[in-house]
Design a protein that fits this description.
By secondary structure, the chain is α+β, with helices and mostly antiparallel strands. It has helices spanning about 15-20, 40-50, 65-75, 85-90, 95-100, 115-125, 155-170, 225-240, 275-280, 285-290, 370-380; strands at about 5-10, 25-30, 55, 80, 110, 130-140, 140-145, 175, 185-190, 195-205, 210, 210-215, 215-220, 245-255, 260-265, 310-315, 320, 325, 330, 340-345, 355, 360-370. This is Biotin carboxylase.
Length: about 375
């Protein structure tokens, strides 16, 4: 697209690849996220100094923060994402459930408000265990606790509140009935903010650890064509209901009888968006930029075709001997060999430091083949 880029970075990220690859880079603070990547003033100040036109929030930290989007627009920049009021509405998990209900999209049984510990106990008494505690402002697998027994409830509730407050600045918690052995499916959508919404197919995201995705693939190998059509239709329906603009993802859980329930909506670019781009040949980030600049949304559902199969494996710096906890330190050797059918997107190289301050994902390995069998063979 010929767009020049400016990267912002913390002191801990001074030597990472994106800082060197951007046309310009600006230091915005110390390593702690609150002093850098969560510092709205510092980011906007960097944008002013470098005279940018638009700010893309990526897929972490402030990506789903409505106050950030509003501040960007108030400062005179384009925000590459949906309208702040939609981020606020769908980022609040309780409000998102209400929107889904109003759009006739099925939801998991739960209580659509912030709950005290005593209120959670009452819910568990009515619906039984297991239950799932969730941060109202949560996302990315954080601020979630499955509770199997009443003896564990108080400690899990307090832990969820602490994590929610630390991760999102909002300690409010709600509760849902936990769906046993669920599959996790999500649908990629694009919208123009005026009611036009298209889907780019579904992704299977059921392989997770601690509620964080490890493998994603598209199309899903686990669902029937009839369920696929229901999921795609429900996602578009919800997007139209909230007049969604930009790229977004509607997430669902599916039980063993193919009943599906709305889980949440991510009002941002997803880590795994590349697999969708592989099978549709549609550049999602490009469309985000075009929509943010108020370009007419010329893409229609009939324009979108699907071909082949794509799988993404996330590579984490973790130690399997201690329950796959994040592992920090110098990366002595890292070799990202690009080969047929494989794309490697990495933020590290040999000699890079893996710090304790941020997510331990260091690379994504994406395969694409004419079939699932071929995509799996490329990953081998």
């Amino acid at each position: 697209m010929g767009i020049r880029t400016v990267a912002v970075y913390s002191k801990a990220d001074a030597d990472v690849l994106h800082v060197r690859q951007a046309d310009k880079s600006v230091l915005i603070g110390d390593a702690l996220p609150t002093e850098s990547y969560l510092n709205i003033f510092a980011i906007i100040d960097a944008a002013k100094k470098t005279k940018v036109e638009a700010i893309h929030p990526g897929y972490g930290f402030l990506a789903e923060n409505a106050d950030f989007a509003e501040a960007i627009q108030a400062a005179g920049f384009f925000f590459v994402g949906p309208a702040p009021e939609v981020i606020r509405q769908m980022g609040d998990k309780v409000q998102a459930r209400l929107c889904a209900n109003n759009a006739q999209v099925p939801c998991i049984p739960g209580v659509d408000k912030s709950l005290s510990l005593e209120e959670v106990k009452q819910f568990a008494g009515e619906y039984g265990f297991p239950i799932l505690l969730k941060a109202i402002s949560g996302g990315g697998g954080k601020g979630m606790r499955r509770v199997n027994h009443s003896d564990d409830l108080e400690a899990a509730y307090k832990s969820t509140v602490r994590e929610a407050q630390a991760s999102f600045g909002d300690g409010r918690v709600y509760v849902e009935k936990y769906i046993e052995n669920p599959r996790h499916l999500e649908v990629q959508i694009l919208g123009d903010g005026q009611g036009k919404v298209v889907h780019l197919g579904e992704r299977e995201c059921s392989v997770q650890r601690r509620h964080q995705k490890i493998l994603e693939e598209t199309p899903s190998p686990s669902i029937s064509d009839s369920l696929r059509e229901k999921l795609l239709s429900a996602a578009v329906q919800l997007g139209q209901h909230v007049r969604y603009g930009s790229a977004g993802t509607v997430e669902f859980v599916v039980d063993g009888e193919e009943n599906f329930y709305f889980l949440e909506m991510n009002t941002r670019l997803q880590v795994e968006h590349t697999v969708t781009e592989k099978i549709t040949r549609i550049d999602i980030v490009e469309w985000m930029l075009r929509l943010a600049s108020n370009e007419a949304f010329s893409l229609s559902q009939s324009d979108i075709t699907f071909s082949g199969h794509s799988i993404e494996a996330r590579l984490y710096a973790e130690d399997p001997t201690v329950g796959f906890l994040p592992s920090i330190g110098k990366l002595v050797h890292f070799e990202a060999e690009q080969k047929e059918g494989i794309l490697i997107e990495s933020v590290v190289e040999g000699g890079s430091e893996v710090t304790p301050f941020y997510d331990p994902m260091i690379a994504k390995v994406i395969s694409y083949g004419a079939s699932r069998k071929q995509a799996l063979e490329y990953l081998d």
